[in-house]
Amino acid sequence: WVAASLTKKRLTLARFSGDSAAPLATKFDVIVVGGGHAGTEAAAAAARCGSRTLLLTHRVDTIGQMSCNPSFGGIGKGHLMREVDALDGLCSRICDQSGVHYKVLNRRKGPAVWGLRAQIDRKLYKQNMQKEILNTPLLTVQEGAVEDLILTEPEPEYTGKCRVSGVVLADGSTVHAESVVLTTGTFLRGVIVIGLEMHPAGRLGDQPSVGLAHTLEKLGFVVGRLKTGTPPRIAKESINFSILNKQTPDNPSIPFSFISETVWIKPEDQLPCYLTHTNPKVDEIVLENLHLNSHIKETTRGPRYCPSIESKVLRFPNRLHQVWLEPEGMDSDLIYPQGLSVTLPAELQEKMITCIKGLEKAKMIQPGYGVQYDYLDPRQITPSLETHLVQRLFFAGQINGTTGYEEAAAQGVIAGINASLRVKRKPPFVVSRTEGYIGVLIDDLTTLGTNEPYRMFTSRAEFRLSLRPDNADSRLTFRGYKEVGCVSQQRYERASWMKSSLEEGISVLKSIEFSSSKWKKLIPEASISIGKSLPLRALDVLKYEEVDMKLLATAVPAPLKKYITCRELAERLKIEDWGC
Ligand code: FAD
To answer: Do you know which PANTHER family this protein is assigned to (predicted)?
Structure first.
């Protein structure tokens, strides 16, 4: 299974991961199964923590594949990405190198709920992710389908009926490890559905994972069934964009990662998105053809917050639903119609699309489809993502009942860190609800479980005013560096510089003091409403909505100019509540 089945292209990729001529070792510290968004983060995190790690996945050329939407981030999801980044995870940096349209959502609301989001070039994301993964020290990447687990006697000091010590591949070969992380996404007994047709598959073009599903069930894990779906893809040249609402990206673009100065592409070179809507004709096609739509008839639960067009028509009849037309990449001829996830037979999907404004002549290149899959009740895992039943076995990503790349990545980084810590017999690394959205996500899953695909929202976080995207580094980077060693020296130094610059900036802002009448003259733009002769510090003036660091530095240049040379520093001085 080592390399025999690899195509020439895949061999080239495989060669990046260490010496491909050397036989594959049969013992690792950590094995991660699955090269999706959870698996890539888990494997890279375990390796960053110093564990010899093996990433086993069906196909190297699908590592980093975005199965559904060509976008990352959003409200709540962008928060998770910042936290993954604060622990030196990959997805934020890769998005800064692969986006085609960067926009911060919710800008009109407070900074606690700003949502960093970007349309991503699928091809570029995959390329950049594969390059990163295949060049990670201590990480070996191999193709293979894991069918079974190797189990041994449990360690008496821990709970659990047995301990995992490796995996069995489809050809019967075995690889041993101290810890194993399963990140199999929608693949466990996956079945894809279009109309009345159903085929076993993890996603379009990929085999399902059946043996492993049986193993987990036999071990006594409680298994549930969920479903999700994806929209059709449309030929770009067949759409009449000229009659639709255009959405342009932000200028300047705000990067996802704390260590990216900027993103790879200038705002003026980025691609627009367009907005259109469904109409009563769409409802009619959906309602008249429910009998041809197995996915809708299934009683399994789908994603409530990313519903199919059928669910929207059934739940909210006679409404016009938004359809965002999103680019799939810089050189891609495809458009992704977000909001139009559908499992009608292909010919009816095409008929439905052409009823929509701007899509009258649209050519469907690939039909939408649904996928139904097994997930494991996440109450069977601890806050470190290790299972209660099997020692040293970790689950992360969609296997735990979540939906979304960001939710998967967040669990992946935690599972990878803890799989490595377990090998070293060190205490687990747990993020609490007060420290991060990652904590909220894992706490919700492990204590409440879920019976529908779980997605992150800011409303789930009780402490959302302090868990802002801008300060994820101060919440997690120092812990990641000092407690587990998953953070690079470069990132640690950057976070330390930011921390000391903020402290210094605050004391300078506290030390600048004028009467309010002088401030009114210096900054006429601000409606400073305090007694004329009362003294007012620059720190207090900065709290006025109209005032930002740039304006303050124009009024009092000498001490403040240096704090506006870094956009992020200037913004954080303004956002944070620095008390008295
Ligand atoms: P995945 O990204 O699915 O990766 C799983 C990986 O594991 C794959 O590389 C696979 O090859 C590998 N693998 C599986 N079994 C084995 C095995 N036995 N041996 C070796 N390798 C194995 N999310 C949303 O937020 N909104 C949506 O609307 C949405 N719609 C979706 C529609 C479809 C059709 C699909 C497939 C997914 C959709 N998603 C959606 C979900 C999103 O793609 C996932 O949440 C995310 O990719 C999960 O990441 P993951 O790492 O857990 O799994």
So the answer is: GLUCOSE INHIBITED DIVISION PROTEIN A, PROTEIN MTO1 HOMOLOG, MITOCHONDRIAL
* Widest Cα–Cα separation across the chain: 83
Task: Note the helical H segments in 225-358.
Answer: 280-288, 294-297, 309-315, 346-353
Q: Which residue has the higher pLDDT, 560 or 3?
A: 560
Q: Which residues of 192-231 are buried (b: 16+ CB within 10 A; e: fewer)?
A: bbbbeeeeebbbeebebbbebbebbeebebeebebbbbbb
With a threshold of 0.95, tell me whether the complex ipTM lies above it: yes
Q: What is the pLDDT of residue 392?
A: 98
Does the CB atom of residue 203 touch ligand 1 within 6 A? yes
Is-contact 343 293, C-beta < 8 A?
Answer: yes
Measured from the Cα of 407, ligand 1's closest atom is: 45
Q: Is 126 in the pocket of ligand 1 (CB under 6 A)?
A: no
Which segments of 48-138 are extended strands (E)?
53-57, 71-73, 99-105, 115-120
| Cα separation, 1 vs 407, whole angstroms | 31
Kindly state if the Cβ of 62 falls inside 6 Å of ligand 1: yes
User: What pLDDT digit, counting tens, does each position of 265-288 carry?
Assistant: 999 999 999 999 999 999 999 999
| Helices 346-353/280-288 angle, 10° precision | 170
CA torsion sign, 88 to 92 to 97 to 98? positive
**CB of 186 closer than 6 A to ligand 1?**
yes
From 270, 18, 309, select the one nearest 137 (Cα to Cα). 18
How does pLDDT run across 498-557, given as a tens digit for each residue?
Answer: 999 999 999 999 999 999 899 999 998 888 887 777 889 999 999 998 999 999 999 998
pLDDT of residue 22: 57
Beta strands in 359-435 (DSSP E): 364-366, 369-376, 390-391, 393-395
C-beta separation of 32 from 41 below 8 A? no
Cα gap 178→51, rounded to integer Å: 10
Round to whole Å and give the CA distance between 132 and 127. Answer: 9
